[in-house]
Amino acid sequence: MDLKLKKGIAIIFNVSDIDRTEHFYRNVLGIETVRQSGGDEADWLIAKWEDHVELLFFQGTEKAGRSPVVVFELEDGYMESVLEKLANEGVEIVTPVTEAPGGWSAEIADPDGHPLAFFQSGELPLR
């Protein structure tokens, strides 16, 4: 079988509080989110990134926090300042900036404990 994939990916997050999640992704991380009506069910969120990635958020406390790790690649030159800003917003830094193959990485947790990672290629700047 020849599997053909479209460009792009959707990643699903199960969350305990859709309002708190919307605030975190939109206001703290700066990712545009659109709330979708769930009709008789809880509302859900969608975030699109340049037609390549969709993040989908569904409320459901029994599965909250159990989702895949998502890695966001940062532009060269500002990994430490991004983490500093996130820490000032009260975001949990799970793993500080550490050397990774081809660059640097760090992990944070969103409000439900979902692990999120950042990657920056190249040399880490002093600031």
TrEMBL record:
It comes from Parapedobacter luteus. It comes from the Bacteria. Transmembrane segments: none annotated. This is VOC domain-containing protein. Residues 6-121 form the VOC domain. SUPFAM superfamilies: Glyoxalase/Bleomycin resistance protein/Dihydroxybiphenyl dioxygenase. InterPro entries: Glyas_Bleomycin-R_OHBP_Dase, Glyas_Fos-R_dOase_dom, VOC_core.
